[in-house]
């Protein structure tokens, strides 16, 4: 017999994507493990939402660069998901008796884990992605799903019309029933974007996943195949409108912007909400130190930093050092990076463990966001232009060329 | 790493810490922006290989228990061994209150007997320092000592030794070979400048034997009734191990103030936090926010702070707010305190969740800072 207790709803978090639009930031880590907001990682948001919504079984589907993500999730303790009956489970693809294969698409990833889901005998399955910054009570959405008797409920959020063509757009009737789904339409008929948050009635989803798996032409993707098939069969698809803060941080520009949103007054997105805390695995570090000659304007600074230079409108993650006479402006400096004396960083993202040596100039006051990839030590006097991305290999190449 | 056990004492009440310890043990006193004093010695033990740590509590231990929890932050929430909270209890042979460390150990014989480790470290909990006990253990084994006592040289930079404090310490005469040849307990004028750090290393079975013998003769005080006689009549081989790093006992308001202010020095910060990690209870806080109009100099600031005013030479604990136009100097502001607008504070210690209303003004003296107790609104 099954010794697992039945769960009404469990969550499956799709964390396998590379997030290639984040360039060098996701070269060695999966997108959900990308740092955000001084001490968080993107995955903290869906995990904390689950914890706060009382959803206590979360399967995390990983396949791209999972090392950092696995280490970060660990036992799930920071999110109170280290439970006897439930918890967080990292689910990589695995070998089966006759075959073994990578996750071929979002629907396939869930399909390969049907036996995981069925252990809990759920009535509903919440499918999430690890790409967005938002606070959302999934329980309210589940209540609406149950009330309307829908087969699927898709969370939607109005987006500005001018960017609607870069989202999955839902066309709905006055009862919020989805009548059409268009992936990145050239001429959008509506501005309701899919938030990548789905609740499926499990038996319905299961039958469609089985069907989809038998179709060799299918890309095994929710947006491209499964949801269109359900629409075609006139199943009951409901849109659930969400009007809180929601940001796709899939590009360097949007990741930078979402960080800057935290600095606005009042903050466009409030992280310190006692009713909806965002949990994170915390580093073991003392409070940060602000030196005699430092100057801080309008910034967010995490623990373990040592600041002796000037910091303006920036987010400093934990363990960052800004030496004297260095300037950091309109930038995001990720954990343990060091900005040495006299260096200037403007409109840039400097990734984990980087060293921006004395006299370096990274980014420009106007222009696209510059990026220094993880573990890069920029040599003294180095320049990184607006919109440029530089990592260890580029530094080595530049050095080689100079010889 | 050798498998050792640790026994931490948190019993000593310290009246010279005024309001700060009226509702909590000294071990639970918040220090350095996000820690409690006990975090240092507890992390030292764990970093030195202790997988079994007992914390003997006596009074006001609610706050300490709340802080330690299951011990998970110190990786002491294991199936075997782990963290043992040892509050006083009443039995036929046990009065509930301990007159000294020996009574506390005697009352917990069951725990001591059940533990498996060969060596035990018995330590107080009011000392802020970061050290690995491993070299001390190696010396203990090399010298074949029965007991090794940890000591440090008295330096103006690390001790706040007014006349009141000298009474509360033991001083050691350590011979060249490391043997302790004399010990003075609570002298008015000490003959030696080696001050005991209240940390001793001893075989667990020998500890049980010694404590049993001493308490059977009505003894209570570890220093005076057990160590001193053993040194005097050479009945035990007692050695000293010198620690030459940063350490500061927190016994008085001034010592507490200095200990926090020491952290504004880069050297002290490095020694205390870069040598080995110091673990503490996690609280989910957003990184500190600096709003326009702020001016922060030479200060230690924890997560969750929101600063709009000016802050100089301060330690701000988690969740502190400094409002517009306010000026805070040479002060220690504990967790969740709220300094509203146009407030002026100098040489002040605010305990947790204190609110200073707009236009308030409190100016203390460096030698005698003003202390405002927990949850007070002024």
Provide tags for this entry.
heterodimer, A: 403 residues, alpha/beta, nine-stranded mixed beta sheet, 9 helices, 31 strands, B: 378 residues, UDP N-Acetylglucosamine Acyltransferase, domain 1, 2 domains, five-stranded parallel beta sheet, 10 helices, 30 strands, elongated
Description of the structure:
The complex is a heterodimer of chains A (403) and B (378). In chain A, 21% of the residues lie in helices and 27% in strands. Chain A is built from nine helices and 31 strands. Chain A has helices at residues 44-53, 67-73, 106-111, 114-118, 138-148, 202-213, 222-232, 252-261, 392-402; strands at 9-14, 35-36, 40-41, 57-61, 87-91, 124-129, 132-134, 152-158, 168-172, 178-183, 192-201, 237-241, 246-248, 288-290, 295-297, 299-301, 306-307, 310-312, 315-316, 321-322, 327-329, 332-333, 338-339, 344-346, 348-350, 355-356, 361-362, 370-372, 377-378, 383-384, 389-390. In chain A, the strands form six sheets. In chain A, strands 1, 4, 5, 6, 8, 9, 10, 11 and 12 form a nine-stranded mixed β-sheet that branches. Chain A has a six-stranded parallel β-sheet with strand order 14-17-20-23-26-29, with no helix packed on it. Chain A has a six-stranded parallel β-sheet with strand order 15-18-21-24-27-30, with no helix packed on it. The N and C termini of chain A lie far apart (70 Å). The mean pLDDT of chain A is 92. Chain B is of the alpha/beta class and 378 residues long. Chain B has two domains: 4-274, Spore Coat Polysaccharide Biosynthesis Protein SpsA, Chain A (Alpha-Beta Complex), CATH 3.90.550.10; 289-372, Hexapeptide repeat proteins (UDP N-Acetylglucosamine Acyltransferase, domain 1). Chain B has ten helices and 30 strands. In chain B, the strands form seven sheets. In chain B, strands 1, 4, 5, 8, 10, 11, 12, 13 and 14 form a nine-stranded mixed β-sheet that branches. In chain B, strands 16-19-22-25-28 form a five-stranded parallel β-sheet, with no helix packed on it. A five-stranded parallel β-sheet of chain B has the order 17-20-23-26-29, with no helix packed on it. The relative contact order of chain B is 0.13. The interface between A and B is large, with 39 and 39 residues. Strand 14 (288-290) of chain A pairs antiparallel with strand 18 (299-301) of chain B, so a sheet runs across the interface.
